[in-house]
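Lecture 7 notes: from sequence to structure.

We start with a single chain of 72 residues. Read the sequence below before looking at the structure.
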Amino acid sequence: MDSLNLDESLVIKYSIGKDEKGNDIFKKQRFSNINLGAGDDAIFEVAKVIEGIIDSNQVYLIKEESNLFMDS
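Now the structure, written as tokens:
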């Protein structure tokens, strides 16, 4: 089995407040078409800069990948 990386995205998920029951309400911002050659350190560095301008006490930095699995 082989795997081919087709796409990578950076997702920033952050709290924008609470609902009437006190549960956090989250919003997501997706940054698609990341250069497939970019390493995790470079992606994380960009994510930290974006995190710095988001006004939230709960921020999650997520890297999503889409891969194609193929028989060898």
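The chain has a mean pLDDT of 93. Keep this in mind for problem set 3.
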